[in-house]
Amino acid sequence: MRVSVVGLGRMGRGIARNLARKGHEVRGYDVSEEAVKAASVAPCELPKCFEADYVVLALPTGKEVLEVLRSAPATDAVVVDTTTQSLSELRSVLEAARGLKYLTCRVERGPKDAEEGRLVLYVGGPRDLFEKASGFLSQLGEPLYVGTHEQATVLKLVSTALLVANTAALAEAAEILRRFGFDQEAAVSLLSKGGAASAQLNARMPAMLRGQFSVGFSAQQAEAVLRQLQELAEELGVEVLPVMGKVRELLRAAAAAGIGGDDIAELVLYVRSLNVQNPHSPRR
């Protein structure tokens, strides 16, 4: 199968490597030559990328998606757009995608999962096109048909917002557990048996307790998604989001302090910086 991946950042690079490892003919495009080299796939010029069976878009925002689609030649390729974007961006993208076989494909999980083919995919678009592409999408992970392009996009925004808010709360809890001296593995194991159980508890709290962070989903990226959710909420007449508003403030403050550039699990470091320990405290 011939596949082109347009956008070879953290997620796109993982997707490209996964597909190449599975024996597909993979080419890639990125504005950065270094990104193309790091993906270890054959480079292609942007118009030529559409000479493929599938074109995967993994771009920073809807703005870049628009630029790519507006320059796309006539093609029979199925365009799988994994780019996280706002609903307003999506509307413009759908106009530009007229005449193309286009699927919205909002992805869950991170770069490591992309490289291992373990993403969760919220897919929107024509049902028959989804069914035709399901074999390919299964190479990326678990494809879940949501319905319309808009429904897949909104579900992704809500899912990510819940992930970020949960991680912010976990950062505070992790600092409490660390100062108390709780065994790291025991804390996560025990919490996962009760009402605190969550994907982020298992995925990010161990890193918070160890103080060792991998490259994943940055504070800047998280804040951008919450901003997109706020725009959607306002459009629907929900103008005040008290919790998400506070989390956005936290993310902006952490980023301004140089924290969270690799992953939002680093929020624990910002919480720690706000709570300089009393040297006379019995817990250290």
UniProtKB/TrEMBL annotation:
Boundaries of every 6-phosphogluconate dehydrogenase NADP-binding domain copy: 3-145
One of the Pfam families matching this protein, by short name: NAD_binding_11
InterPro entries assigned: 6-PGluconate_DH-like_C_sf (IPR008927), 6PGD_dom2 (IPR013328), 6PGDH_NADP-bd (IPR006115), HIBADH-like_NADP-bd (IPR029154), HIBADH-related (IPR015815), NAD(P)-bd_dom_sf (IPR036291)
Sample GO molecular function, one term: oxidoreductase activity
Chain ranges of the 3-hydroxyisobutyrate dehydrogenase-like NAD-binding domain: 152-268
Domain of life: Archaea
Keywords from the UniProt entry: NAD, Oxidoreductase
Coiled-coil ranges per UniProt: none
Name of the protein in question: 6-phosphogluconate dehydrogenase NAD-binding protein
